[in-house]
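FAQ

Q: What does a record look like?
A: Structure on top, sequence underneath. For example:
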């Protein structure tokens, strides 16, 4: 099965029609060796410069959020107005470099055991993900 066929299946499984624009988004996201961290605006700029297809911001936004809901992408909320998305959906942690706005993967084994002492009645911890904010030293 070719990558294009895999992308088409991924789109169909997500309930999305496999248009040329969405296939271009898939290619950029999933046809790579390394993890890809991006914001919607980063992705929009990359697609504008690399794709022969014109892709609206709405198409990018909707496709990314459907992929997140389906489990193909992980969202990393930096604060209330900035989120990154990650193509690595396995359990892991992150560094966020505030000087460069770069996300760097941090392996689960790089973080010691985390003990949460507070309990919220009627709730259980689903997962714990650490976001370590760093900045460039002088």
């Amino acid at each position: 099965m070719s990558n294009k066929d895999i992308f088409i299946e991924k789109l169909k499984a997500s309930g999305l029609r496999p248009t040329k624009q969405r296939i271009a988004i898939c290619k950029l996201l999933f046809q790579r060796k390394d993890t890809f961290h991006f914001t919607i605006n980063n992705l929009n700029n990359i697609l504008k410069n690399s794709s022969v297809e014109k892709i609206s911001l709405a198409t990018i936004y909707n496709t990314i959020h459907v992929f997140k809901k389906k489990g193909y992408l992980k969202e990393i909320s930096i604060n209330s107005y900035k989120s990154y998305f990650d193509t690595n959906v396995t359990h892991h942690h992150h560094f966020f470099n505030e000087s460069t706005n770069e996300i760097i993967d941090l392996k689960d084994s790089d973080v010691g055991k985390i003990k949460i002492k507070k309990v919220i009645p009627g709730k259980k911890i689903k997962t714990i993900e650490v976001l370590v904010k760093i900045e460039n030293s002088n």
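Q: Is there anything notable about this one?
A: The radius of gyration is 17 Å.
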